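Write out the bound-state structure for zinc ion.
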Amino acid sequence: MLVSGKEILRDALEKKYAVPAFNFTNMENLQAIIDGAEEMNSPVIIQTTQGAIEYAGFEYLADLGKGAAKRAKVPVALHLDHGTDLGYHLKAIRLGWTSLMIDASKCDFETNVNIVRQVVKIAHVLDISVEAELGVIGGKEDDIESDISIYTEVHDAVKFYNETNCDSLAIAVGTAHGIYKGEVKIDFDRIREIKQEINIPLVLHGSSGVPEDMLGKAVESGINKINFDTELKLANLKAMRKFIEENPNIYDIRKVFKPCRIAMKEVVIKKIKACKSYNKA
Ligand code: G3H
Ligand code: ZN
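---
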């Protein structure tokens, strides 16, 4: 069933687990997410970046996402991931997205606050939740890219929340978007300190490649939404390459996609276990 972002995150906050949030661009990708969530009886967030919307088309992705969510046996929220352009937020609201992220983290503090407030003002009239980001998460995801990481300061997070009234907050605590080049180090104390000061759902981005036990510890420290993208893409591609290499003469694309969907579903199930969201639907 399609549910609001507020509802899905409220439950996670109360019961101290994280809702896994997976990016999608096409049908197979989306089916793997929903199948995995249903098998684990887990709520799930399906999310689209602006890049995914450009690739697939706004209306097309809306129909795909809402159609899958409405048919699902578990709660599903449709979320705009890393929205940077107010036009996308407005159109997403009109087309039925139930949760929005406004990412103005590249701007200075005051500008970030002002941009987030604009989105919050509109979204809250319609009871749509808004995720904001404070600090800089390194790495690359679509058009969002940074060579550096700037950890979120506790006092800044408190001030930011008080001034914006955002519903959830993505914080920079050591993870990075894309494929990790070095060892992952997460500042769990920082998560705990921020959570102690502002008891709202905190969001972990750049979670592909983070060992499962560290994800579990992040949940225990106060994270209530964990975003995954790269690992799904890698699983998809690996399965596709393997199938094509082993079956060079098969041209039925459905046969190619089948193992890809299975491989992505396995990743989804693994991440749901790490988020402790199984049997919470
Ligand atoms: O917003 C999406 C996530 O932060 C994805 O990060 O590609 O490192 O899993 P990832
Ligand atoms: Zn992200």
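---
The chain has a mean pLDDT of 96.
The first strand starts at residue 19 and ends at 23.
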